[in-house]
Amino acid sequence: MSHSANHVVPERGAVIAASRAAYGPGADAALDCDAVIIGAGVSGLYQLYRLRELGLKVRVFEAGSGVGGTWYWNRYPGARFDSESWTYGYSFSQELLEEWDWQEHFAAQPETERYLNYVADRFDLRRDIQFNSRVSAAHYREETRSWDVFLEDGRCCSTRFLITAVGVLSAATMPRIPGIEAFQGQSCHTHYWPKQPVDFTGKRVAVIGTGATGVQTITEVAKTAGHLTVFQRTPQWCAPLHNARITREEMRRIRANYPEIFARCQETFGCFIHATDPRGTFEVTPEEREAFWEKLYSEPGFGIWMGNFRDILTDRAANRLISDFLARKIRQRVKDPAIAEKLIPKNHGFGTRRVPLESGYYEVYNQPNVRLVDINETPIERIVPTGIKTSAAVYEFDIIIYATGFDAITGAFDRIDIRGADGVSLKQKWQNGPQTFLGILVDGFPNLMMVMGPHAGLGNFPRAAEYSADWVTRLVRFARERGLTRIAATAQGAAAWTEHVIAASEGLLFTEVDSWMTGINRNVEGKQVRRIMRYSGGHPKFRERCEAVVDGGYRELSLA
Ligand code: NAP
Fold first, then answer.
1. Are residues 166 and 184 in the same domain?
2. What secondary structure letter does DSSP report for 165?
3. Ligand 1-lining residues (CB < 6 angstroms)
4. Nearest CA to ligand 1 atom 12
5. What span, in angstroms and rounded, lies between the C-alpha atoms of 487 and 448?
6. How far is the CA of 122 from the centre of ligand 1 (A)?
7. Which of 6, 129, 403, 552 could bridge across to 214 with cysteines, CB 3.0–4.6 Å?
8. Are the C-beta atoms of residues 397 and 206 closer than 8 Å to each other?
9. Looking at the predicted structure, is the pLDDT value of residue 332 above 50?
10. For the segment 254-278, what is each residue's pLDDT rounded down to a tens digit?
11. Are 20 and 157 part of one and the same domain?
């Protein structure tokens, strides 16, 4: 954790002035390869494994000093995923499934990071990964049908295929609050949490932000902090995670059931084990409804979001009812009625933002050492050397934690100067929203492929990423077998997919709400207008469409 505001977000350095002229001096022929993958997280590791199987010379550039991506960076207190661990692990290797025992139903960051390191070692992946290597630019070169890839440290190389595995939530953003530099205590964005443990005992701690990250951080920090103040702009509809350790017997059963578990994930909308209930909210009696919701609230994981009545995310009246149910739960759990009211969202319904799963979050506000500041009532004016000044008071702190989120989905792309065939930058091309073909290809950017790019289906990340990486692998194999050296989406293909993505989101209540899922980040210039950022038709339909392209011999692509 830093003591100086300069380190609040590690300085990444300005994007190097990458041009073909600059390619000479830093060129490292040893780095030249058939495919460059950007990122050694969940998708990058798997993509490397698959492309290596094709016999390609592959190079992964990873900004961190270790593998894991999300699970390398986000070491903040309480970090864990909301997917059942045994649905989150890779499914591609029977040996791996035999060897790895998950310790908890919802693994915390250290366990997931250990797992991804195990995978990297098990499949000898490290030898093709360049760590501490942040890609700053990538320019397509028509003469050679290849990409020049530039690293922040000045090195560069050339590759036929450029594959991004940059994640969806990897470009962290600090709030635009004046004075951040002036704070004299310790401060950190949750994404850049230090590797060494931070001791909160007896400390006065502030957390700004109450998304899924803030909720986990607050719950954990409140256990030991001398005093914790939460600065909340928008409350969230949180539901219980109900995590537990996995016994040996349970792990044995899980292992025996892996084929059924993965098959079920393939059938559901978001690749989780939770499938939407086919009933409508108003097709059951009020008593049945209440009993169903009580059951979902008492069960582990995303059932209450993903396994609920089919209309709660489309029908306003249904959404109102489930929101009222959640509001009653908050009022039951938080003792002070005035604080409970502040914790109940008023500007969006349940499930229209990503639901944070929690483990005692609401009870934190019953603790004498925790205070909630609603910054809609008393806005933060600035960070001062001793703490945070709102319109009502100056609060003094030893530690300020920024749980202020990400420039999601396109942010990691925007931070790389990616230029396609006509020299246009991807950032420019996407300034009014992403346009892709299947969330994998972009017209005008030949030989660029995105694993989990914008307009791909989101959900249980590794399940979706494995499919995307397999699709990319099949396309690369197809090209290699036929001696094709230029693969591109067509403008018509990209327009049709983009239209389909927009149509698939029509009628979904989430599109009417500001959140990272609709491309809003008030801390980033140009991200104030809601956009359709992801495919909302569900994974089975997504795969169906992707398979149709393969079955049609990739006729929808421009291949040469
Ligand atoms: P987030 O959901 O975008 O939340 C950011 C929070 O910071 C929001 O409460 C936001 O308020 C607040 N904020 C931002 N700028 C602010 C400012 N200038 N002043 C005051 N408050 C400000 O980000 P996140 O919590 O990091 O989560 C992002 C996503 O990562 C999640 O939705 C989830 O998909 C993933 N995630 C998953 C897990 C898990 O699996 N359990 C855990 C953590 C994260 P507003 O809402 O008003 O903008």
1. no
2. -
3. 80-82, 169, 175-177, 208-214, 216, 233-234, 354, 375, 403-406, 516, 523
4. 209
5. 8
6. 34
7. 403
8. yes
9. yes
10. 999 999 999 999 999 999 999 999 9
11. yes
